[in-house]
């Protein structure tokens, strides 16, 4: 059900659609595919960048500077994870461009210049607060049906939902929200663009519900720990993928706990 693309050129902009450039950071990995997609977009209020990417890739940073122009209008963040946010302090210092992020952005060493709310419009983009993968996650919708989805929906793989900041109940609710919208194309935080996205998002949500049913079926046979449930349900041998599976199981169990369908006794979970 997932999509792939050839490894992209590094430190080089590619026009994906009128007014949308993509530069892919050189941070490939099992959780990032070929790397983070940074989007430079032309808006009625000037040129913005969505998710400038990691701090470690200096060539990516310089490509962003070159393509943003002399006076960029702003920096938009889908969420605070370092592969999307890492270079933001340096980019703000270099360009003086204001940083826009969710009001739920973690209050630690960095403070954005503007906080965004669900339904707000910035530079012609409507802000969608889509918690689940991260509590501060935002998507940005253009009036022409383009949706920048960050890590909420990616075309190359499903997203990890890792408590405590990740929340499976919120994640599934926000998938349903996107199903009910009429966006025509997604530009995700990693991987290729996604056309005709609603059937794909329906499959994502269906797969989450299937996993949940498998977790409940496992618990109907025996109370068990997160690690044992993940090993049974996901059957992943790669340690990084197994770790992600365990976090997803933990998120499902917290969702089921909030619905009073399971209870926790120390490290053991069981049906109510």
- What gap, in angstroms, lies between the N and C termini? 34 Å
> What structural class results from the helix and strand content?
alpha/beta
CATH superfamily of the largest domain: Ribonuclease Z/Hydroxyacylglutathione hydrolase-like
Instruction: Provide the low-confidence segments as ranges.
Output: none
CATH class of the largest domain: Alpha Beta
CATH structural fold name of the largest domain: Metallo-beta-lactamase, Chain A
Mean pLDDT, rounded to whole units?
97
Quick structural overview:
By secondary structure, the chain is α/β, with parallel strands linked by helices. It has helices at 58-68, 82-85, 88-95, 168-179, 197-221, 226-234, 239-258, and strands spanning 14-17, 20-24, 37-43, 46-50, 74-76, 99-102, 114-116, 121-122, 125-129, 138-141, 146-150, 185-188, 194-195, 262-265, 268-271. The longest helix has 25 residues, at 197-221.
Describe the structure.
- The chain has 272 residues and is of the alpha/beta class.
- It folds into 2 domains: 14-195, Ribonuclease Z/Hydroxyacylglutathione hydrolase-like (Metallo-beta-lactamase, Chain A, 4-Layer Sandwich); 209-271, Arc Repressor Mutant, subunit A (Orthogonal Bundle), CATH 1.10.10.10.
- It has helices spanning 58-68, 82-85, 88-95, 168-179, 197-221, 226-234, 239-258, and strands at residues 14-17, 20-24, 37-43, 46-50, 74-76, 99-102, 114-116, 121-122, 125-129, 138-141, 146-150, 185-188, 194-195, 262-265, 268-271.
- Helix 4 packs antiparallel against helix 5 and helix 6 (226-234) crosses helix 7 (239-258).
- The radius of gyration is 19 Å and the shape is elongated.
- The mean pLDDT is 97.
């Amino acid at each position: 059900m997932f999509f792939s693309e050839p490894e992209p050129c590094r430190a080089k902009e590619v026009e994906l659609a009128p007014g949308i450039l993509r530069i892919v950071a050189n941070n490939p990995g099992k959780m990032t595919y070929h790397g983070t997609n940074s989007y430079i977009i032309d808006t009625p209020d000037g040129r913005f960048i969505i998710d400038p990417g990691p701090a470690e890739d200096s060539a990516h940073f310089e490509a962003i500077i070159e393509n943003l122009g002399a006076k960029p209008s702003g920096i938009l963040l889908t969420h605070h994870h370092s592969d999307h946010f890492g270079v933001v302090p340096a980019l703000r210092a270099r360009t003086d461009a204001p940083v826009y992020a969710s009001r739920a952005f973690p209050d630690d060493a960095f403070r954005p210049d503007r906080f965004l709310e669900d339904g707000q419009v910035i530079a012609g983009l409507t802000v969608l607060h889509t918690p689940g993968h991260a509590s501060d996650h935002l998507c940005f919708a253009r009036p022409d049906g383009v949706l920048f989805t960050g890590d909420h929906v990616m075309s190359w793989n499903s997203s990890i939902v890792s408590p405590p900041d990740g929340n499976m109940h919120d994640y599934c609710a926000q998938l349903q929200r996107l199903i009910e919208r009429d966006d025509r194309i997604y530009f995700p935080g990693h991987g290729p663009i996604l056309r005709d996205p609603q059937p794909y998002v329906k499959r994502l949500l269906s797969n989450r519900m299937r996993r949940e049913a498998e977790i409940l079926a496992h618990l109907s046979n025996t109370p068990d720990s997160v690690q044992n449930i993940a090993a049974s349900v996901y059957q992943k041998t790669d340690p990084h993928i197994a770790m992600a599976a365990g976090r997803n199981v933990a998120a499902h169990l917290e969702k089921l706990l909030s619905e009073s369908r399971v209870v926790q006794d120390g490290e053991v979970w069981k049906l109510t």
